[in-house]
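Re: beginner question about structure tokens

> Can someone show what the tokenized structure looks like for a real chain? I only ever see the sequence side.

Sure, here's an example I had lying around. Input first:
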Amino acid sequence: MKACVLYISRTGNTKLMAETIAGHLNAPIFDIAKPEGFVSGDFDLLVVGTPLMGGRPAPEVSAFLQNLPEGAGKKTIVFCTYAITKAGALKNMQSELAKKGYVTVLELSKRVLRQSKADFSDCLVELSKILKE
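And the corresponding structure tokens:
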């Protein structure tokens, strides 16, 4: 399965989680603010991450999801980093993706107050489980 990781970050936490996931998957990584070289048709699995803003995905992520081409059953994993609560942000992302025909197979979230790749080890365990299925 050919995967890629797409993200936007404000403080560096989401970027660190995106880099950790991309390294685990040996996948290319794209910043949604400037996704040069990203072509959705080149990938079987899109992993999309966002920081939370008022309990919602960053506006750039929402716009990116709305502009994706039809997915026709293509798989996605959504993730977020947050400081207080994840609210319904991941469900919001999942809903936007479903409108385009994408199937979300996993949601990952992490409350991050300091930056360390070790903070995401539990997320990588969940990711490994879903990829074995």
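Each token stands for a local structural state, so reading them left to right follows the chain. The chain has a mean pLDDT of 90.
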